[in-house]
Design a protein that fits this description.
32% strand, 235 residues, Rossmann fold, 31% helix, 10-stranded mixed β-sheet
């Protein structure tokens, strides 16, 4: 009986130590932070009175196509060729939905744009142009060494502008936006820079739409117009 009692006593002490260890880990874990993109305005329809008076454009924005590694709740940081994510700094919503809304809000602020609709929209909605975005990079960047060199934000995207009536490709373009001065580990600062990068992307798309000008309905039997190529230099 004594050996059995001693064994039970040792097991009880091990369980107690294990519980104490778990308790310590829980107390030292950082709090979960969740972030959302967008300035808080209505993304489904953003109207500009000046654009309305001048016959501004009505744009339909399709759901953004994200690179597979970006379609994750975790905010992505690239260190050299490695992708780093944090379980404690995450998106508070589907990242594709957040990017679509944010870009639509910024696009809706362009002087030439009257309204922006996000897909899905009502069946009878009419748009001058449809925009399809493809985001291939949207992340913080830090050097792949042990130095404390400052990091940066990098957003790379391409897009197509489509005529709603017949699906003809009217314009395509690329945007490469980089913002320096980011400190690794500052996820709040990274999200602020991401907003700036997406705002720049929307500005590039708006410039492309300005090159197209007012929408023209396709004429019967007419040849498709030549596709315009737009873009911004890497910055």
């Amino acid at each position: 009986m004594r050996p059995m009692a001693r064994r039970l006593q040792v097991l009880g002490m091990g369980a107690l130590i294990g519980s104490a260890g778990c308790f310590s880990l829980a107390r030292t874990s950082p709090p979960l932070e969740e972030f959302v993109l967008g300035g808080g305005r209505s993304a489904t329809r953003v109207a500009q009175s000046a654009a309305r008076d001048s016959g501004g454009l009505t744009i339909g924005v399709r759901r953004v196509d994200l690179a597979p590694y970006l379609a994750t709740p975790s905010i992505v940081v690239r260190r050299g060729g490695r992708i780093i994510t944090s379980e404690f700094h995450r998106w508070g919503e589907d990242p594709a939905a957040g990017v679509t809304r944010a870009v639509s809000e910024y696009l809706g602020g362009a002087a030439s744009v009257f309204a922006v609709d996000i897909a899905p929209w009502p069946v009878r909605s009419r748009h001058d142009y449809l925009v399809q975005l493809h985001v291939s990079r949207m992340e913080g960047e830090v050097p792949d060494d042990s130095s404390r060199a400052p990091g940066a934000l990098h957003v790379v995207a391409s897009w197509e502008v489509i005529r709603p009536d017949d699906g003809v490709l009217l314009a395509r373009g690329e945007s490469d936006r980089r913002e320096g001065g980011w400190t690794a580990g500052d996820y709040r600062g990274l999200v602020i820079l991401l907003e700036k990068g997406l705002s720049g992307l929307a500005a590039d798309v708006a410039t492309c739409l300005n090159r197209l000008g007012p929408a023209v309905s396709p004429a019967d039997g007419a040849a498709p117009p030549r596709t315009i190529v737009c873009g911004s230099p890497s910055r």
